User: What shape does this take?
Amino acid sequence: MATLLEVRSLTTEFVTRGGVVRAVDGVSWDVAEGETVALVGESGCGKSVSALSVMRLVAAPAGRIVGGQVFFKGRDLLALSEEEMRRVRGREIAMVFQEPMTSLNPVLTIGRQLTEGLEIHLGMTRGDARQRAAEVLATVGIPDAARRLSQYPHQFSGGMRQRIMIAAALACNPALILADEPTTALDVTIQAQILELMRDLSRRFGVAMLIITHNLGVVARYADRVNVMYAGRIVERGSARDLYRRPRHPYTLGLLRSVPRLDEPRRARLQPIEGQPPDLTRLGAGCAFAPRCTFRVERCRVERPVLAPADGEGHVTACWEAARLARAPALA
Amino acid sequence: MTDNGALLEVRNLVKHFHVGGGLFGGAPGVVRAVDGVSFAIRRGETLGLVGESGCGKTTTGRCILQLERPTSGEIVFDGQDLTKLDDAGLRRFRRRMQVIFQDPYSSLNPRMTIGQILAEPLVVHGLAPDRAAREARVGELLRHVGLLPQHAHRYPHELSGGQRQRVGIARALAMEPALIVCDEPVSALDVSIQAQIVNLLEDLQGQFGLTYLFVAHDLSVVRHISDRVAVMYLGKIVEIAGRQALYEDPLHPYTRALLSAVPIPDPDVEARREHVVLGGEVPSPLNPPAGCVFHPRCPIAVDRCRSEVPALREVKPGHWAACLLA
Assistant: This one.
């Protein structure tokens, strides 16, 4: 399938009291039309900042995109004027955030929030926009949609609010939705509802999706391809199947081993990744994961590994010891 | 469910909150946060308490700790019904029941060093006679939770999330408690750190003979750490059983739906797996449904479920469920 979004050598920095932090450090990834791609990693790894950089929503002046390109349908979004960029946001690329209550305006009705984009982006009349808004609300499974347009966010439950956010994202028929931890704040049974809904909608309307999450289960169920991030870089990428079956980066392997699985017999003891996540203001020259890595060799301390092919189509890993890792016993 | 080896027995615990009726409050009402909950925890045992937000699991924990006074019911800790005690009487017991919170950052004073945070309860409860004894005890506590003596001079913001949770655990340990209520102790932590903290909690349990009430929503973590598990829905326990029985042979349709909703980190397994996706949402505890509280979302509900309240009954030895069809 054709490439829809291509991020090349994207670098985003933040000025903090501790010094300049490179939250996203020369990262490249892409999303094909209609595909669901995951960006996985732990807090501070740069996954959310990557999405915000694509939308050019990194908070200035502390945050700044300092390098790279973001090609969307062939155009570099980083080279667009702010005016042109506004026509992309919401219209062609939409975003869904973790906490719907903070992204919905509490003093505007749901109807007003859904019709605003339709009037601005698509030039619809108020009446048409209202009709379309009711239609998308019904699509995301909100009963009695026409009546509920005149209600306010607080009159909806958390799960319903997230449905509204998805409706807002879908309203203008975007080609791509960036979903940043879309179900993390929700209960498990509601999380399952929302994820099934997103997958269904993505298939029905051919919308490509970038899911940003720390939940390896969600990734396994919903993503076609996966990028694993650590300390601002992608350390491994591959099809979901390759990555889970044949992880070729010690961090990916460590993550998979550290979570207890309901489908397997209970283990006597969990296998954590020892140590702490790195301080991004004090990254050395070597691999950022080296201090916590059980496969580390001398070279890892001095030379930062770059992404190189591993077994499997499109499977790449940034590890000097990938070959040794490949010979290690499979996931127990 | 009387058990002579029980450290804690909760009997018919009810906690209602009165809401509304104030200046801006709207119509007055009663939130039935906990509505007749009973269970026991044996010494050295871990009971997992799972359920979705608003099911009453945290309120149950707070009632046990007497941070909330129950509306009715008994909390029998080491043979003493805590609900019958006044504040002075409770003081003696508070030390022996400690709590670990989800977010250690908001429960640690940002202006105190880790050493001061850990020394404070020692002073308050007179557990260390002088400065030297306090410092020695602080160093020992840090070592127990896998931190270094020099961490005593740091402030909470200088530590990572996992390290802060270790401080939270050390503070609970300082009181030499018998029971620790762990309220979502790993859910705010990164995946790679969660396993570290779970292992630490297990080690400490073995070392000090601790009893845990482990309140959480992550069913995989709860299975790992618990000996028995109770599932709550809308203020009631709907199922309680030994770990293996509950996970391998769940009897309540809500437990089955919860287990089915957890995605497995394996694309091949997920591709084969059938999900029971529950429709609807948890009803308001202000106005719970008649009959079985789960019936509006239950995939197997029959007419009887709309009117008849199912009692929690022992369906198999040691395996209790509140379902008319179990």
